[in-house]
Design brief:
Length: 314
């Protein structure tokens, strides 16, 4: 029930306006979002690299409806890729196709995205296409496969374990040696499309993780769930797979203790670092993925609110 409520709030314009105008909202978001500018993202990547972690930088935004906005988003990614190359950071980028013009025109989308992935290829860098709601799953994979067929190999996709179709998608992606990030998923979906029970989502996650570890091309196992992490560690040990064959991925600001622990144990860890002004829907979906994160937000808001100052005086 809480998860569904948070997903609903992530899509509500009224809730967005209320939260973004609330006292301490930006302070609240700063735990999970690196800032609003390219330089904020680069600064966070630099610090994480120094801690032995690699990074995937994401300029927040989705569902863009104008060509100007979509071109501006691509321009931001171009600046980002150039800055990564200038600083020689251990970082790549993630983007959403709806931010690049997916709902505008397919030819325009391709023109806009290839600007980014061509530059990434020049810099010997990598671009991940984030996965959005199930309404975009087939469209995203179809677009990806057209680029793959045209010889782009510096691109990868995300697969969500809560979707019933994901086992078939991973089988095909493994055959093509595509780099896949596996996550659980954080959009509201129909029961015919996605597993509803957490136990079913977790079971699917473990099954898909095993297929990726055994047959995939350097998969990203994206989770903060310690049970999923242990299942991955045990499977890798049983297969005697080198730790260099995959990486764990975690979100900026979430389970930083666990991030450090995994690095100290010799695992590759990539931190997904979002930045930009469109932080509200991102933040709400992170709460839906892991409702325990809600307590971090409530605590941050209270500290910055008039009520929090009142309690501190006492």
């Amino acid at each position: 029930m809480l998860r569904e409520s948070l997903i609903y709030l992530s899509e509500s314009p009224l809730a967005r306006r209320f939260v973004k105008s609330a006292p301490g909202a930006r302070t609240m978001a700063s735990r999970f979002v690196a800032g609003e500018t390219v330089e904020d993202g680069i600064r966070a990547a630099r610090i994480l690299n120094q801690a032995g972690m690699s990074v995937s930088l994401d300029y927040l935004g989705e569902s863009v409806s104008s060509r100007e906005e979509a071109r501006a988003a691509a321009d931001t990614y171009i600046r980002l890729l150039n800055r990564i190359a200038e600083e020689k950071l251990k970082a790549n980028v993630s983007l959403k196709l709806t931010q690049m013009g997916q709902d505008i025109d397919q030819a325009f989308l391709r023109e806009n995205v290839t600007r980014v992935i061509d530059l990434a290829r020049q810099h010997d860098s990598f671009v991940r296409f984030d996965m959005e709601s199930s309404a975009y799953t087939q469209r995203t994979l179809d677009f990806f496969r057209k680029l793959w067929a045209d010889g782009y190999r510096n691109i990868g996709v995300v697969i969500q374990s809560y979707l019933r179709r994901s086992a078939g998608d991973i089988e095909q992606l493994n055959r093509d040696a595509v780099r896949v990030r596996l996550c659980k998923g954080a959009y509201k979906e129909l029961a015919t499309v996605a597993f509803e029970a957490k136990t079913d989502v977790d079971r699917s996650y473990v099954e898909l993780m095993k297929r990726l570890i055994e047959y995939g091309n350097y998969p990203g196992i994206a989770t903060h769930d310690e049970r999923m992490i242990r299942a991955t560690q045990e499977f890798v040990t049983g297969l005697q797979k080198p730790l260099s064959d995959f990486e764990f991925q975690m979100l900026y600001g979430i389970r930083r203790d666990l991030q450090k622990q995994l690095v100290s144990q010799g695992y590759n860890l990539r931190v997904y670092v979002p930045f930009g002004g469109a932080w509200y829907p991102y933040l709400m979906r992170r709460m839906a993925e892991r409702p325990a994160n809600l307590f971090f937000i409530v605590n941050a808001v209270l500290k910055e609110s008039p009520f929090g100052r009142l309690f501190r005086r006492k």
